[in-house]
Amino acid sequence: MLKLRRTLAWSIDFALIVAAATLLAVLTFHRVSALVTDVPELATKGGLDLVTSRGDVIGASEHLGLSLWDKVVLDVEEAFGALVVVTFLYQWACLTWLGRTLGKGLLGLRVTPRLSRHALRRAAVTTAADVAVYALACVLLIEGHFALSVLVWAVAVVLLLVNALTVLFPGRRSLADRLAGTSVEGAVRRAGSVPMERVPLG
Description:
About 75% of the residues lie in helices and about 10% in strands. It is mainly α. Helix 1 (about 1-35) packs antiparallel against helix 3 and helix 2 (about 40-50) packs across helix 3.
């Protein structure tokens, strides 16, 4: 039952990350659309490239196309970078100030100990396992490093599985918990009592 609560808590937190990724994707789409539909700027840049090309029309066109592609790639890479930063800040801020993420709070779970250095390490590992390594793989693919991208994707899958499956081992702690020196506990209210009792998961 506690494992189910922990899985549901992770699902809620990951849904928030997906929502952030969707918002960033929409914003990036609008940035790219604005870039390729800005006719005056494109005409000006294309005209300057043509004038300075000494008659090399093909070269000028290629330069304009590559310039646009580089800007599109930069916009997409910035979106991936923003997603990693947002994910880390969400994890770190929630753990530092509340001792739990939104998902864990809704399922009656908390992360202990609630110390800034533990929160920092746990947020970093969780972000790497959930988002950062995947984002790196996508950036490498966009940059044209296909083989390296596939390798990083494989590492991302392994990292995600290791982080999740280690809760099945003795101690019931994820990779993030083990590296950060934390554990996830449930809060159960005893009948007729006001204070909350911390109950270790597992």
